[in-house]
Amino acid sequence: MEHLHxxxxxxxxxxxxxxxxxxxxxxxxxxxxxxxERIFGFSAADxxxxxxDVIIPEKHxxxxxxGFQEAMDRGTSKYGEADLLNVPALAxxxxxxxxxxxxxxxxxxxxxxYCGAVIRDVTARRERERELMRRRAEAxx
Length: 141
Fold this sequence. Notes:
Blueprint: H1 6-15, E1 19-23, E2 29-32, H2 34-40, H3 44-47, H4 58-74, E3 85-90, E4 96-107, E5 113-121, H5 123-140
Antiparallel strand pairs: 1-2, 1-5, 3-4, 4-5
């Protein structure tokens, strides 16, 4: 794999169907691929340099930023490579969606850190699961 040109990897990241988002140590969006555009409805130009708050529901922001700051201070995330987080998020049109994501800490050339996430929209699946649970509860009555 050492012979794979970095442009190929960057091309894969840019075109991946899952969202790939990278924020800097201040929580500002620095990378937003086509998958993130599709999931959230914001173009990369719309979110470049903006706070990640653009996709975090207001009632979840404090918890998110507290955890983010702890990770930045430690230099590591408390989530391991096999952890998949499931949280609500906001789309550009104001809809709440359900996302799953994994998170990685990425060292910056200047000694700082970036935080990257690979994101999948699981809204439809979560709605099917809720409907199945509702039907089971009705059948049990």
